[in-house]
Amino acid sequence: MQIPPKYYLTSEIIDLLTKIEANRLHINSLQISGPIRNRIERVSLLKSSLFSARIEGNPLTLDEIETTTDDVRKKEVKNILRAITYINTQIKPGDTITSKTLQQVHRLVIESLSPKAGRWRSEVSGIFNQVGVAVYLPPPPAEVSDLVNSLVDFVNSKKEANSLVCALIAHLVFEKIHPFLDGNGRVGRLLMLVINHSRDWTFPVLVPVEEYIDEHKEGYYYHLDRGYQDIAGYLTYMLEAFLASTERLRIEITELINKTPLPVSPRQEEIYQIVKDNRTTSFDFIRRRFLKVPERTLRYDLKKLIDKKLLRKIGQTRGTYYQVIE
């Protein structure tokens, strides 16, 4: 298995990279207030986690994450969220990426879902289509460790100067190695975030590219499958995904900056946005977002929002939920 595969940057790829970088520079130049940044980051984190799980077959929607009784599906999303938080806080510019980095990310993603969290697969594996036919047979287990080491050597070598291109190539190679028994897709997409953090190629908030991929899942799997045969097609598809996602983020931030603020305090506005983003929200959910704020203060904030007819209260005591008044 050749690592990295032979590739070149077409004029279309260079054009996409230029547009993405222009969006990144523009977004980084915006004066984003604390409440707006917190709101967008919260939603982006949730989207990135949820849609990464959905790509792999998790059926949950944004509205169902907190209300579902399917603990396994909920755990899949929450684990990805924890892994993203780990990357955002622990991976620093200039950090060397190692095989242990990938194992730690996998450990967080699969925790309590598999007894083999953080361990390379020790058995022959395969990728099957919907009718059970093997469409790809990864390298045998004995080769996994050496192949992963070759992959991280490529990433750390800086042979590919463009961070995003390096991240996309690494994602493709990782999926072809298929080093774990389960969770390869989720970890492979998180690897792109790891690489961009280590190379200091970041945005002020997370870009949830997984939302676009989930919406265009058929194309994603098609280009992953043919990635080594048509590297330009794979890079073009993934860059189109990143461009569309950065465009969404740019528009969302701009609209929020230009929006007339609500006649409430910054924390109350943030509570309002949490309820709006989640449609129906319990007090316990709000309290978990403001662990340093006393419960009495949060209840006061909610009362103020109700008095201003921005929120409505539904139910009593433990069954209480809050909704936005449109």
From TrEMBL:
Domain of life, source organism: Bacteria
Catalytic residues (positions): 178
Keyword Nucleotide-binding applies: yes
Keywords: ATP-binding, Nucleotide-binding
Binding residues for ATP: 182-189, 220-221
GO molecular function terms noted in the UniProt entry: ATP binding
Residue ranges constituting the Fido domain according to the UniProt record: 97-240
Site (Important for autoinhibition of adenylyltransferase activity): 56
PANTHER family assigned to the protein according to its UniProt record, in alphabetical order: FIDO DOMAIN-CONTAINING PROTEIN, FIDO DOMAIN-CONTAINING PROTEIN DDB_G0283145
Name by which UniProt lists this protein: Filamentation induced by cAMP protein Fic
Source organism of this protein record: Candidatus Gottesmanbacteria bacterium GW2011_GWB1_43_11
